[in-house]
User: Which sequence fits this backbone?
């Protein structure tokens, strides 16, 4: 093996949507890639999402007006954004998260996320076809129904931003909504049909299909927990759960909510700290009622849930109910109040059978103070690359992250501007 071939070796830590995407994209550029995770691909955070791929996800939670909403967010159990007291333990992140809820940060973040989402969407479509699972994709958009006219008016600012970015949408009145989704209860006065969106019927199956493509193309897989990461004169060393050391010239940390913990435990990033918070989310599956269906996911803002038509692991139709975001400590005990509230709201608008036993799920999604993921090389740590912090939209932004990171690592021109995602933005406090 010559020096060039050695330098093009990389180990990717993390096998969720983001890590698998990084592995696939690097492999496509000729890198020899080893993928490492303690769980099989797609078994952690990437499993429990609504499966939506939409440009509307360019809207971060910390947007102008968040300060005025704080009292209701702290008190309302059914809110789409719930702040639990344990989030205060990450006070540096929380303060910076709120500090970025201003127009200047919002404008940078929305432009950056829109570029990353569009790049991801194009990449998703190519990879789904290559993995022979394009049948899992639905090009039916998704719906934001509003319970009453005042609720519809309150969403005007978000609709204006989507219009500014050219996101294809259509406002529906009650009869038009009924014609599009006839099985929804007639309890909504309006809806926004986000047409510039697609969805998949099983997110975990998609991640596993991408991982299978990676392995079929010669990628290496190691199932192990990574206990520590150490810098060496000619690269990086990671230690597995058995205590064995493995060397690599380049390493990508894509461990989602566990990424910063590994960096801190390894003490390899002096003067660099993201101060991540965690957007936790719950889901629950329901058996479908015969003759009742949804043609696309719905995001009920008043009820603070998303209801998505899915296929379970046996290929049976189910409805996946996902909650709003819960800001809390990563490992805080579950609080099912938000999930129960979401179920009560969903049952008022669509007939559903009983919950599928053992389908309750809770996952923590890593969130940076400015709501933009960290993508790039760590300052003063050559060969250490980061790809984490995708908040609740990692499924929509993972493939684009992989493409952008592979371009940066290969020293090529990039498809989108990498500067809003660069790790060096965290070298100094805002």
Assistant:
């Amino acid at each position: 093996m010559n020096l060039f071939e050695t330098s093009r070796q990389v180990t990717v830590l993390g096998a969720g949507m983001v890590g698998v995407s990084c592995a696939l994209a690097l492999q496509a550029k000729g890198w020899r890639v080893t993928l490492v995770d303690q769980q099989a691909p797609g078994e952690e955070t990437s499993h429990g999402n609504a499966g939506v791929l939409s440009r509307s996800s360019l809207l971060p939670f910390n947007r102008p007006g968040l300060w005025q909403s704080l009292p209701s967010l702290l008190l309302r159990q059914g809110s789409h954004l719930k702040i639990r007291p344990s989030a205060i333990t990450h006070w540096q992140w929380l303060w910076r998260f709120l500090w970025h809820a201003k127009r200047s940060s919002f404008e940078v973040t929305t432009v950056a996320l829109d570029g990353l989402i569009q790049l991801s969407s194009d990449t998703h479509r190519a990879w789904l076809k290559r993995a022979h699972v394009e049948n899992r994709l639905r090009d039916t958009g998704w719906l934001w129904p509003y319970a009453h006219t005042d609720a519809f008016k309150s969403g005007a600012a978000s609709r204006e931003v989507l219009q500014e970015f050219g996101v294809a949408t259509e406002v529906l009145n009650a009869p038009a909504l009924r014609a599009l989704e006839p099985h929804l209860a007639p309890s909504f006065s309006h809806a926004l049909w986000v047409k510039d969106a697609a969805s998949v019927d099983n997110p975990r199956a998609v991640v596993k299909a991408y991982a299978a493509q990676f392995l079929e193309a010669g990628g290496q897989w190691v199932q192990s927990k990574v206990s520590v990461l150490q810098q060496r004169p000619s690269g990086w060393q990671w230690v597995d759960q058995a205590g064995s050391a493995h060397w690599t010239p380049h390493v990508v940390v894509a461990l989602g909510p566990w990424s910063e913990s590994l960096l801190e435990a390894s003490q390899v990033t002096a003067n660099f700290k993201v101060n991540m918070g965690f957007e936790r989310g719950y889901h629950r599956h329901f058996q479908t009622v015969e003759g009742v269906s949804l043609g696309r996911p719905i995001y009920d803002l008043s009820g603070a849930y998303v209801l998505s038509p899915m296929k379970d692991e046996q290929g049976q139709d189910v409805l996946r109910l996902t909650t709003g975001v819960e800001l809390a400590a990563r490992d805080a005990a579950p609080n099912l109040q938000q999930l129960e509230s979401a179920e009560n709201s969903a049952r008022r608008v669509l007939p559903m059978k009983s919950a599928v036993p053992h389908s309750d799920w809770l996952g923590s999604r890593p969130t940076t103070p400015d709501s933009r993921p960290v993508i790039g090389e760590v300052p003063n740590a050559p060969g250490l690359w980061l790809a984490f912090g995708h908040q609740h939209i990692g499924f929509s932004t993972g493939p684009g992250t992989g493409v952008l990171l592979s371009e940066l690592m290969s020293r090529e021109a990039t498809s989108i501007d990498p500067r809003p995602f660069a790790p060096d933005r965290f070298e100094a406090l805002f």
In short: The mean pLDDT is 91. The first helix runs from residue 3 to 7.
